[in-house]
DNA sequence: GAAGCGGTGCGGCGAATTGTCGCACCCCGA
DNA sequence: TCGGGGTGCGACAATTCGCCGCACCGCTTC
């Protein structure tokens, strides 16, 4: 990440995009941030980028298509896909289309950078890290966190998305600091 | 799937393995089923297989290692990875190691076969199928199903794994036919 | 500036769910 | 035949949830 890496950031969530852009710039990268696949296609054609960060849920065109497009433009380009809460199917699809890695959204900037560098970060140990079976509370908690992030921290909206009462969400958040 | 396809099935769960084997045989395949990575490595070396189905959580060696081994033995071999409840990270890792697809475990035999054939089944539409945000109930229910399968239908054990009371699990199962 | 709108925190209360204990029954290996 | 473990189910108290309502705030629009 040294000679002024140029990155293309594509995400329609303004807040998230700007925060991530700042974080990446702070780490020494040059970041071109756009909000749509259309814009991304345009600027990608102009400049030589060293990597791309693509949100999967984009207005209009799917991020998946953008991945394919970017990959076609410059086959070796490291692309990482970001998404609010991903499915295994779309993750595999993204990789098949040329993405290098696939991260879920409350994503650590350092994690993103190392993914772009190709450090899979996880394959360190040959044996799989046995995840154990997550408790019900655990799963619930993680899902709440994902949706909350997805909703941009908006509790009311998150509650609607989760199909529970806002009050209940508040209580869950208040009690549940870390279920484990 | 015509001229007597030979498949290698690797899963340590006897019940699940035999059920799946029967289902595959019923669909016209010849199936060699083994319970461990060690056995799998042995028989894989002997016979010409047309595909392999590998459980990720195997006793001792990880299914991931087995995937790599099988892939090394015969690079073109279609391998699908099965797992009780998978993570995106391990799914990507499995594909990197040579697996063709990655399915979570209450898996439809037909789905497995089409995955082996390379029909990604999902990539039909270029645009992503927007999964929407799963409700809390939905997520809970799906997780319960996974764990229940993992426990081989043993309600008491599943309840322990989920960290809830057996009685509660019973009630959830009784009420929740399909939360949606 | 004053509505109007949507978000947040919080109290309260009846209804629904959960945790727990107990009991009866079954299957299976010692 | 006994003991261990699984299953279904009833009962009851303890929680939690759904659903009001209220107060307060920031923002956009008249």
Topology:
The structure is a homodimer of 180-residue chains.
Chain A: E1 6-10, H1 14-26, E2 30-34, H2 37-46, E3 51-55, H3 63-73, E4 79-83, H4 88-96, E5 101-104, H5 109-116, H6 136-150, H7 155-162, H8 166-175
Parallel strand pairs in A: 1-2, 1-3, 3-4, 4-5
Helix pairs in contact in A: 2-3, 6-7, 7-8
Chain A binds a DNA duplex (30 and 30 nucleotides) through residues 154-157, 164-168, 170-172.
Characterise the protein shown here.
2 copies of one chain form a homodimer. Chain A is α/β, with parallel strands linked by helices and 180 residues long. The first copy, chain A, has 2 domains: 6-121, Response regulator (Rossmann fold), CATH 3.40.50.2300; 136-174, Orthogonal Bundle (Arc Repressor Mutant, subunit A), CATH 1.10.10.60. Helices cover 47% and strands 13% of the residues of chain A. Chain A is built from 8 helices and 5 strands; from the N terminus they run E-H-E-H-E-H-E-H-E-H-H-H-H. Chain A has a 5-stranded parallel beta sheet with strand order 2-1-3-4-5, sandwiched between helices. In chain A, helix 1 (14-26) links the parallel strand 1 and strand 2 (30-34). In chain A, helix 2 runs parallel beside helix 3 (63-73). Chain A is elongated, with a radius of gyration of 17 Å. The first copy, chain A, starts with 5 loop residues before the first strand and ends in a 5-residue tail after the last helix. At the A-B interface, helix 3, helix 4, strand 5 and helix 6 of A face helix 3, helix 4, strand 5 and helix 6 of B. The structure holds a DNA duplex (30 and 30 nucleotides).
């Amino acid at each position: 990440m040294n000679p002024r890496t140029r990155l293309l950031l594509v995400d329609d969530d303004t807040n998230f995009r700007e925060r991530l852009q700042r974080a990446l710039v702070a780490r020494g990268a040059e970041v071109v941030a756009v909000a749509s696949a259309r814009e991304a296609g345009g600027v990608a054609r102009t400049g030589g980028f060293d990597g791309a960060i693509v949100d999967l849920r984009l207005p209009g065109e799917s991020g998946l298509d953008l991945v394919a497009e970017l990959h076609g433009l410059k086959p070796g380009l490291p692309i990482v896909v970001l998404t609010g809460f991903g499915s295994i199917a779309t993750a595999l699809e993204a990789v098949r289309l040329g993405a290098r890695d696939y991260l879920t959204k409350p994503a650590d900037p350092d994690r993103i950078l190392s993914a772009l560098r190709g450090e899979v970060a996880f394959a360190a140990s040959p044996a799989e890290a046995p995840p154990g079976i997550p408790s019900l509370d655990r799963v619930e908690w993680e899902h709440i966190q994902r949706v909350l992030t997805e909703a941009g921290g908006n509790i009311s909206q998150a509650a609607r998305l989760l199909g529970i009462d806002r009050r209940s969400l508040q209580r869950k958040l208040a009690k549940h600091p870390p279920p484990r």
